[in-house]
Amino acid sequence: MHSIRSNNHCSFNLYNDNNQILKYSCFCGKAFNLTELYYCNGCQQINCRYCITEEIDFHYCPNCIENLNSAEASVNGNKCKKCFECPVCFNTLTYSVIGSKDVNTVTSPPTAGVTSPTTTAATPTTGETYFLNCGFCKWNSLDLKDEFKFDMPSLKAKKESSIQQLQVNKSIEALNKEAAELTSLKDKKTINRIKLAQAMKHFLGPQSKHQKHNQRKNFNKVEDRWESTSMAHPVPHNHLVPTPPPGQTLLSEAAIAQRVQPITMTEADQMQQQRIDAREFETLDPLGDTVKYDDDITPFLRDQVTECDQVSSLDQRFKNIAHSSLSTSSIHPQRKHLITKRSKRCKRCDKLLVKSEISLTKTEFKRQHFAFTYVPRVQITRVLWIDNDIFEVFLQFTNPLHIPLFINFPMSIKGSFISTDDNSQPIDLCEHETYINGILDETDDLEKESIIQTLKQNENPRYIIDRKDNKLTMKFIGKVGIEEEQIAPKDNNNNEEITNLTIIHLTESLANLSTSTEIPKFNSQFKDIKFTITLEFSTSSLSTAPSTSSSTTTADKQQKTLLKLLFDIPSNKFENTLQQ
Amino acid sequence: MQIQPKYFEKTQYIETLNGNKVSKGSILCGIMNIRLHGKTIIKPGVIVRGDLANVNIGRLSTVSENTVIRPSYKKFKGAVSYFPLNIGDHVLIEEGCVISAASIGSYVYIGKNCVISKRCILKDCCYIPDNTVLPPDTVVPSFTTFSGTPGRYIEDLPDCFEQYMKDYTTSIYESFLPINTLSKGRS
Ligand SMILES: [Zn+2]
Ligand SMILES: [Zn+2]
Ligand SMILES: [Zn+2]
Ligand SMILES: [Zn+2]
């Protein structure tokens, strides 16, 4: 199997160039920055975000940090009861008192400039009327109707429900029933079905208790339909949840119908034809009645507009979908979207990987299986050319655990040593097993201790550069270009095929170039040097080879984890690349 | 890539017993009200307005060049009252920021040229990318990224952000070395 460098998901990693250089391959072949990965103890493998299932633990408002369970959240359409967002700049709005001296000045709304002293929600005074005020763009709700003026800086949420919600409730009921039946039998197939049921449940939200009451109310409130289709945000990534077709929401009746009905061959042909037809634009008679100003400013508005700020932007209209007003003066503030805390499970064995505390004030986790705290962390300390197209990399391995880790560079593995896009490969690396000390160097295990001693004695100073605390610096030599025979055939899906790594031992003089004072400069063929280093690690000794161990093979249940490190080093990071 | 060591002129910095490294090019007003909890780095050009209210900066935190730390105030019954400003441990504030928050938790990363306006509350573990402007009274919950003008919720952070920041700020502190060690430091 070829590993692929995937784009890091978090913008935090995207902004940081350093976090793009080295990626760790997940068991499924996608490689990400270490911070975005998890490590499953059950299968002793790395999990990427495609290899986990997520469940919403609870919802909370990002502004008032109020905790809500899924039922409470869905009653309010996954929005906060108290907090509003500015319709213009989307900042959180604050409650302010109208005319701090006289309550009756409502008829002549004060201008935005003379805002009265703002009060926090903590100090409500009776008899005062509050309005919403934006501290960033100075928008306020004074020009709007009474809907956005309040007696108290908190208000009752209106019930939101829609035709879709009622449909959803029915299917949730069915799913609930099925899930209850299935939980009694738990083999692999049913686990998947339970997963699907749970996924659908979370996606669709729990049942509203006030169905009938809302049904009637819904007839005359069309805009409610839009408001209640809001989902928990961000939606947990779940491969079992279908993605909505573009331009439709997942729960619109058309979309549901579409998913249920199978598509026939003729329909497929028709769709193909329609797609071809759609490429030709209809010519319109500019004077005819057929011309529609679909999303344009009406002539009336065009005369009124004196500043471009008066026309709402697409973003503003999308947030305000019930009104979608063209002018900024009539768009309404929206309630703040709730965000979610999610627990994560291994997709392969269903083991719980991450579960956060219910309390939002703590950053602790009930369970935390981050790759960052289980897998040896790797950093490049130095990289340089030692000859044309031959380079040397110094890697520092950090053991995040309290016990020693054993690492080994396998010479043959199932699958491929080369990843997609690689333009280089390692050619000279340590062939013997070695170890990284734990954080506190706690070795209560005598047997382990003796293995470490033997490993230390047989250590090759050519590859092992430095040991310090829980850190180990090693040297690798790589070359630009790939040996053809090491590439497992791509179209062949047989993962069992074994590939071997060829080792070329370079002469000592070449290998020791990095220690000399004067290092010559070399050209780089590529802008980025991409290669893969494969290693195995385990908390118990990996090989049976060291003289002492006869029992290590049998007694230890600990498996080893195969780890592929995908490097993508820009050539300007090399110490001695010739600048062009 | 490993963080490349940054060397500083020993005469340009004041090192305290508990490992604080404060540049002589920084301006600390009302120094009695400023508490650095150890292993804190204050770079040149930084202004800390301790004369307005107490300022606490936690362990292994770094305040980069030309950042202004200014406690926020609130008008209350006509009078102006200043709030103390607490910054947690393992916080990294990049260059050119204006920090007027009411509190900043631990494991927080604030990028270059950010404005953290009056009375903002940044919880533990959050990330503010470069050029973000947080409006007054913004609350940034744990494990979130806020960016833009005005700064608003963008996405969740990786769950191991706390461990990442611990590791990152520690290595920043350890690679900030006085220039004398340059000759013997390199192997
Ligand atoms: Zn994966
Ligand atoms: Zn809220
Ligand atoms: Zn605004
Ligand atoms: Zn697993």
From TrEMBL, chain A:
Keywords: Acetylation, Coiled coil, Cytoplasm, Cytoskeleton, Isopeptide bond, Phosphoprotein, Ubl conjugation. It is found in: Cytoplasm, Cytoskeleton, Microtubule organizing center, Centrosome; Cytoplasm, Cytoskeleton, Stress fiber; Cytoplasm, Myofibril. GO terms for cellular component: centrosome; dynactin complex; stress fiber. Its main location: cytoplasm. InterPro entries: DCTN4. It comes from the Eukaryota. The keyword Coiled coil applies. The keyword Acetylation applies. Subunit of dynactin, a multiprotein complex part of a tripartite complex with dynein and a adapter, such as BICDL1, BICD2 or HOOK3. The dynactin complex is built around ACTR1A/ACTB filament and consists of an actin-related filament composed of a shoulder domain, a pointed end and a barbed end. Its length is defined by its flexible shoulder domain. The soulder is composed of 2 DCTN1 subunits, 4 DCTN2 and 2 DCTN3. The 4 DCNT2 (via N-terminus) bind the ACTR1A filament and act as molecular rulers to determine the length. The pointed end is important for binding dynein-dynactin cargo adapters. Belongs to the dynactin subunit 4 family. PANTHER family: DYNACTIN P62 SUBUNIT, DYNACTIN SUBUNIT 4. This is Dynactin subunit 4. It comes from Polysphondylium violaceum.
UniProtKB/TrEMBL annotation, chain B:
GO terms for cellular component: dynactin complex. InterPro entries: DCTN5, Trimer_LpxA-like_sf. Keywords: Cytoplasm, Cytoskeleton. Signal peptide: none annotated. Its main location: cytoplasm. It is found in: Cytoplasm, Cytoskeleton. The keyword ATP-binding does not apply. It comes from the Eukaryota. Belongs to the dynactin subunits 5/6 family. Dynactin subunit 5 subfamily. This is Dynactin subunit 5. The lineage of its organism: Eukaryota, Amoebozoa, Evosea, Eumycetozoa, Dictyostelia.
